[in-house]
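Protocol step 4 of 5: obtain the predicted structure for the target chain.
Materials: sequence only (see below). No template structures provided, no constraints applied. The aim of this step is simply to have a reference model before the mutagenesis design in step 5. Sequence pasted as it appears in the construct record:
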Amino acid sequence: MNWTDERVEKLKKLWSEGLSASQIAAQLGGVSRNAVIGKVHRLNLPGRAKAGGTTAAARTPKRSATAPRASNYQARVATRTVTRQQGATMLKEEVEIDTVNEIQYRPAANVVVPISRRLGLTELTERTCKWPVGDPLKDDFHFCGNESPDSSPYCTYHQRLAYQPVHERRRPAQPRG
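Step 4 output (structure tokens):
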């Protein structure tokens, strides 16, 4: 299939309108979705616009104002002018970027961390906590060694760290008391 000048212009027009590669292939006829994608990349066309939007809007996803964020970060949107090349022409455009500020986490003061018995591998039994402490390649590596309840490899404290509900795994580990 030959890419004539008029087919290339139609491809550019449909791409800028926000049509998908499959939709463009269907409108052009006699061309596959992959051929459209390949031609778009060879032409260095900017990111596809959403229907009725601009190319900058297509690259910056909108966050829902009502959706709560469960993380230790605060995000805010800032506008920055960037320069990019399109063919032999340098273009300046303003894009929205998300900036992130880390919120400092302060653990609760009432958390009690058990004192490790500092057992070596050969000193462990089925009733001792097998939580590793430190770097295994260092001389000061050891295991917690505190008493563990029946059928558990860890003491009560390390069980809370090891076995977290799914919704809590997405957040950074927080000691509990």
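Step 4 remarks: The CA atoms of residues 56 and 95 lie 6 Å apart. The beta strands are 73-86, 89-102, 132-133, 142-143.
Proceed to step 5.
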